Amino acid sequence: MHQDPMLFRFTASGLDAESAFTSHVAEDRELRGGPFARRADLTKVGRITVVRDRSALGPVVVGYFTDSAPWPVPYGAPLDEDDAEWLADRLIEDDAPCVRAGGAGALLLETPGPERSWLFFGWSTPLG
Questions:
Q1: What is the maximal distance between C-alpha atoms in the chain?
Q2: Nearest to 26 by CA among 37, 12, 15
Q3: Residue among 2, 25, 14, 4 at smallest CA distance from 104
Q4: Which residues lie closer than 8 Å to 45 by C-beta, 6 or more apart?
Q5: Backbone conformation region of residue 95, classed left if phi is above 0, alpha if psi is from -120 to 50, else beta
Q6: What is the pTM of this model?
Q7: What is the DSSP string of 58-75?
Q8: Neighbours of 65 (CB within 10 A)
Q9: Which pLDDT belongs to residue 88?
Q10: Taking residues 56-84, what's their average pLDDT?
């Protein structure tokens, strides 16, 4: 039976991207899905890529807010959730290598506490 790829996106916290993803997958496996609730099979994700490049955000900052970038978007810097969501959408639309089948992109989020939070996104097979 052929299963089409399924988009996933979620946030999880942990010391690093890999541990946050692994913890989320363990919790996700315990959830029971209803007959109409399809979810991505996160156990099929074989690699996590922390996306440090923020260059795609530069034109957005310039285009929407001012004629010149009012603040730098540093390489690897934490992002607020809106910028992270926007960047994840662009990477998915552009078929970036980090989100090709079997992979997940991870963006570090700005968080108030000491624990790091990540936005994960990519394609996987549906949980069957």
A1: 52
A2: 12
A3: 25
A4: 21, 25, 102, 103, 104, 122, 124
A5: left
A6: 0.82
A7: HHHHHHHH-SS-SS---T
A8: 11
A9: 93
A10: 68
- Whether pLDDT at 13 is above 80: yes
Lookup result for tokens 């363990």: 26
Percent helix, strand, coil in the chain, to 5, is 35, 25, 45
What is the three-class DSSP state of 88? Answer: helix
DSSP strand E in the chain: where? 6-13, 47-50, 103-109, 117-124
SS3 state of residue 127: coil
Q: How far is the C-alpha of 128 from the C-alpha of 40, rounded, in Å?
A: 9
Element (H, E) at 41: none
Give the bridge partners for 79, in sequence order: 109
Say if CB 18 and CB 27 are below 8 A apart.
no
Tokens encoding 72? 């730098």
